[in-house]
Structures are given as structure tokens and as C-alpha cells.
Amino acid sequence: MACVPGPVQSIERAAAILRLLARGSGRLGVSEIAASLGLARATAHGILRTLQGVGFVEQDEESGKYQLGAALLHLGTSYLDVNELRSRAINWADALAARSGEAVRIGTPLDGRVLVVHHVFRPDDTLQALEVGALLPAHATALGKVLLAFDAGAAAALLETGLESFSRRTITHPRELSRALVEIREMGWASEVEEFTVGEAAVAAPIRGQGGLVVGAMGISGAVERLCDPRGRPKPTLVTYVRDAARAVSRDLGASRW
Amino acid sequence: MVERYVMSVDQGTTSTRCMLFDHGGRLVSVTQREHKQHFPRPGWVEHDAMEIWKNLERIAPEALAQAGVVPEQVAALGIANQRETSVLWDRHTGRPVGRAVVWQDTRTDALVGELSARPDADMIRERCGLPIATYFSAPRVRWLLDNTPGLRERAERGDVLFGTIESWLIWNLTGGPKGGLHITDVTNASRTLLMNITTLAWDDDLLAFFDVPRAMLPEIRPSTETYARASRVLPGVRIAAALGDQQAALFGQTCFAPGEAKCTYGTGSFLLLNTGTEPVPSTHGLLTTVGYQIADEPAVYALEGSIAITGALVQWFRDGLGLIASAPEIETLARSVEDNGGCYIVPAFSGLFAPYWRSEARGIIVGLTSYITKGHLARAVLEATGWQTREVVDAMNADSGLALKALKVDGGMTADNLLMQFISDVLDVPVIRPMAAETVSLGAAYAAGLAVGYWADLEGLRRNWHRAAQWLPSMDPGRRETEYDNWRRAVERTFDWIKPAGK
């Protein structure tokens, strides 16, 4: 970035509204808030509606007055319940499995690993076991690398604990992983070719919530010869299916730009 | 070559949805619009049929626009609908006579009591496969005729028409007052208490019993057949199928062979078992109903276990108690504890449906101690759906003489892994979710596509079905028996709560 911009006025005003509501005088109406802060009523209303949209303030249905929202209390924890995520993604995950012909998984971060929160079988009616609840290594899977790429803190923590090897192709060198994560951020998707299980490959893309925050990863996995071209790279059509499905879920979750 | 699609309309209890499917049975576009629920008195539930029609007028073109499709590319339209909900309308003006009376409405309970006490009431179940209950259409029609001045005369003259929702939509799509087609499909007709389950025709004795004039009834037609071309909203599109929503789900799950069953988990839950081309009478509280009828082939029958409250209990937990912010969070809360802590919830909110049919039962929470937390309550909420499924499956096994080997499931609650595992545990059979969770819409589309040759045969449809997930039983048999016994004792405690009037 060429120059550092100054403070953003609307964010300062939003912070002032939150401080005002936190003073403990109970609920406040839009006019009271506008008057207290010397804002035009329409300006205050616009900021309140935005804060309400992200869950930081709540409006009482009867009086129309505002108070601090429950989301503020859970700022540190995941704001999207994993069961809610599954429920919102289930139709798109089915469609992805039907289009790609491969198994679909959705993962969320849990203590430096990937928790599988949803799994759709490969649509060939062979015997497959449900893997919901399984934990996968973050650096050796496409799902995990997507989650690491968009969470610098988690990536740094993992690099400190060391990178376990699962196959000849697992990324075990910190610098190599960092480079891979930069590339994933640029491309918007990740792949895994025999890095966790020999003979298996996977492609994953980020699921984003409000404001673009990455809340999970969604992807397909299967035999290398089905997912990759002869040179060992994921087939572009499959990558497109995965990215489209992840974008569709993101749109449903309120991420506007993706 | 221009790609062609099949459209389906799922006119449900809370919303109307319109979907387009491609030849692989894959969802191409979906539009939806909710309609208002009217609760004018305790126990009364009504819909505005005109609002539902206007919603369809709006969402059908939207579904086309979303996919960039013109009506000429729609090979056929299939309709699935909320069942038993009854609309009466004026043939000349096209205006409904009052609001539609919804399947959950219990205003006819006194009338149902009177009718059940008649000496000739015994022939009803034998003739139409259903018990006399507030759930079905005939008592509602009778109630409306009795309580609306002048209505009976207009109905006898054929000026006022009766229909379930698919009749109302087809009549409007084919011109309304200007030559609209007044028909119903055989699955919907099998829910009225007025159709002979063997001959599949309106039955004079049943009409006399409920005192419903024949002139107001629609013509009964097969579930799949090109009825007509739409003259409004989707001009020129062939209307080629109509099914009750649960029957559509049976079709969408491709349960085409006797012994195949599915359960759809929504507001309530409905388990249907294909019993082949002969109606199987129930002695264990199930309904004998028509599964589907393809053109002029013999009808395929089903046994049905209807559970009134399943997803609705989760909604109550969210909206009535405020213990969760969204329905899926029930699983998160339930997983915060190991078990139900000895607590059971029986959601007999408007009595119990199958296999009990006790309209005077009301809901209870039993086993409360100071140990119980909201986590245990959340468990009990989910387990109520599991045990109610078990009771219906037991009845089904007893009636059919077969043991269910696996249960195909669909509907919104199938996203709940804890619940699906619990259902597999208490049934002691695998529970299987297909790749297309929207089986009601898919079933209506399949039926319509089949009628016009878009899909060649049932085998072709079967090949589109794929397993998306499977849960295997893992509960200790001793624990299963103890828990089931506790559940049944809890159910007994709901009986006889509402006292008969005047006592």
C-alpha cells in the first residue's frame, strides 16, 4: 500500500455507539443515541443497522430500542455454530458431490487441526463410512491448508509445534509451507496430492461468512488418477466445481463479495 | 439442442417453493415464498388460498429467470402439496369461501367425536383406510358447510367447489373461472375420508356419512398423466403430475418396490412403506393410503405412520423457550451432555398421531430432577423424534409382517448427525440419506417427467439415486430396551389430559 489512510470515521462512530450502550444504562433509542453523540439521526440509524447485522447490537422488538448484542460476548469463540454451518451447506455439498462424482467434506479449525463437520459419500454407492467428527492434520490436507492460509495465527502456532510427516510428499519444511499458503491465498483454493494418504488427492476452497471471514473449508477428495491430470495437477473443471460450491455457501452465509 | 428441464412446485405448510431439475435429477434453480399462518382461535390454523396462488404466480417465473430458461424449455410441471388442507371456492368468481383450513386445525374435534360414536362409524376405516380424525379433509368440509350460511345449497348446485391445494392450483393454472380444470390426484383424494381405497372413486356411503355433496368434489385422476397445459403463469407448459407431499417424497426416494420405505423429517415426520398394488389394512394405528398411480397402471399403495410433532418441537425449543438461537444449534447443546439424564419429552402438542391417535393427549416433560440442564432437555427433544420413529416402525413391521432392514431418510432434520445416529440406534437398522435432500420436489419432478417421457422409466430414476450418508446402529441392546420402556411409560402419562366437555 502506498500510503497509510487516516482513521475511518464510521468505525470511530460505531465504537462510540458500542461504548455508549456498554455504559449500563439499559436500552437506548436511535434518537437518544444520535443526540448523545451529536450525530444525524439517519447516520446513527445506518450504523446501528450495520452493527445489528453483525450481531454486535440487538433491537428490542416492542420498544425498538437498542442494546449490546450477544455476539460481542462470544467474540473470541467461533461465531458460527458448526451444526448451523452444516445445515446451511448441505444442499450445496450434495450438488458438489453429484457434479464432481467425488466425496465432499467440510472442515472447521479445532486446536490446530481440522474437524470434519460434514461428509457426503462419493456417489457410486460403494460402502463408505461417515467421517463426521474425524480430525485431520492441517498442513497435510487441502481443507487444513485453506484454513491455515486465511488464519495467520493458527499457521504460526503450527509452525512452532513442527510438521509431522505422513508420506513422502507431506510438506514438513516451515518455509515450504509458508510459500504454499501464500500461493493458496492468491489462487483462492488449495490442493493436496498424496501428502496425507498415498494414492489420494483433494481440492478445497474457503467458506466465508459475513465480512469475508473464513469460517470453514469445503472440498472434494478421491483417487489421484480421477482428481488429477497426467502431470499430477488437479483438473481445472473439478477446481471450478469446488470453488463455485464454496462461493454458493458463502453467499448463503452473508459474504457479499465472494 | 436446447436444454430442457422439469419444474416442480412444492406447496408446503409454511411456504411454496419452485424448483427446476435437469435430466440428471440435479437442482438447477430454486425460489421460495412463505405465506402467513392464521391462528384465529386456539386450535384453529388457516391459510389464505389466494395468497398461496399469488405466491406461485410470482415464484414460478422467478425460477425460470434464475436459470435463464423460457417456458418452452420446461418439459413438464409436477405439483406436490401439503395434504388434507381444504379449500372451498366459488366457481364463478374464483374467490375462496373463507380461508383454507389447514391439516393441523383441530376445530372439528367435537364433530369427530360425534361421528365416531355413530353405529355405522366402523365401516369408515375398512372403506377408506383411515380412522375418523380431525387430521383429514371430510370433517372440515362438513364443518364449513354446517357453519357458513347458504353454503350447502351453493355446494349442492355445484357453484362452490372443494379441493385440496393441488386442485386449487391446477384449477387456477388452467384458467380459473374461465374453464379451469377441477381435478385432484388419487393420493390427495385418499386423504379425504371420502374415497373408496379399493375402487379409487368417491364412495356414496362415505359421502352420505359425512354429508358432503358430490357436486362440489373434483374428478379423481392418476398421479402422473398430462392433465392439461397451463394457460396462465407458465403458458403452454404441461401439468403432468400431482402428489401429496409425503407421497412425492416416496417417489423422490425411488421407493418403487414393495417393502421399500422412507421417512421425511420436517415439522412433523411421515414414514411411508410401499406395500404394492393391494391395500394393506392396518391393525396397529397406521394409515392405508395411495402411494402413487402412474397413468392407467394399477395404483401402488402405502402404509403410513404419521407423527405430528418432530421438527416443530425443535422450533418450540428455539422460539417458545429461547434456549437456542437457531434450530441446528440443538445438536451443539445436546452434545454438551452424555445422555438425557433421565428426562423425556413427549410432544403431544395437539394430541398424538400414529400409532395412538389420541386427540385428548397433551405434551409432558417427565423425569425432572435438579440434575437436569438445558443440555439434557435438548437431548430429550431429539430423542423424542427417534422414539416416535421407533413406535411407527414397530407398527409397520407388525402390520406388514416384514422387518424393516434399512430406513431411507430425507428432510431438514437429516442434517442433524446426532439425531440420525440415535434413530439408527433405536431402530437397530442402518439409516440412509440420499444425495438429493429435496425429495418432495424431486419426486414431483420425477412423476411429471415420467408422464411426458422426459425420463423413460422407473429404472432410469432409480439410477439417479445415490447414498450421501449412512449411520449404523451402535447402541447396547440392554440400554435400548430400558430407554424404550421409559419412553413408553412417558407416553402413557400424556393420555386423557384433556377432559371431555362438561365433565
Write a structural description.
The complex is a heterodimer of chains A (258) and B (503). Chain A is built from nine helices and eight strands. With 258 residues, chain A is of the alpha+beta class. Chain A starts with 8 loop residues before the first helix and ends in a 6-residue tail after the last helix. The longest helix of chain B has 27 residues. The model of chain B has no long low-confidence stretch (mean pLDDT 92). At the A-B interface, helix 4 of A face helix 11 and strand 21 of B.
Q: What is this structure's SSE topology?
A:
The complex is a heterodimer of chains A (258) and B (503).
Chain A: H1 9-22, H2 30-37, H3 41-53, E1 57-59, E2 66-68, H4 82-100, E3 103-110, E4 113-120, E5 135-137, H5 142-149, H6 152-161, H7 174-187, E6 190-193, E7 200-208, E8 214-223, H8 224-227, H9 236-252
Antiparallel strand pairs in A: 1-2, 3-4, 3-8, 4-5, 6-7, 7-8
Helix pairs in contact in A: 1-3, 2-3, 4-9, 5-7
Chain B: E1 5-11, E2 15-21, E3 27-34, E4 46-47, H1 49-67, E5 74-81, E6 87-90, E7 100-101, H2 109-117, H3 122-128, H4 137-147, H5 151-156, E8 160-163, H6 165-173, E9 183-185, H7 186-189, H8 204-210, E10 219-221, E11 224-229, E12 238-244, H9 245-252, E13 261-265, E14 269-276, E15 287-292, E16 300-307, H10 311-320, H11 329-334, E17 344-346, E18 364-366, H12 374-400, E19 407-410, H13 417-427, E20 431-434, H14 439-451, H15 458-463, E21 467-471, H16 477-492
Parallel strand pairs in B: 1-5, 5-12, 9-10, 13-19, 19-20
Antiparallel strand pairs in B: 1-2, 2-3, 4-7, 6-8, 11-12, 13-14, 14-16, 15-16, 17-18, 20-21
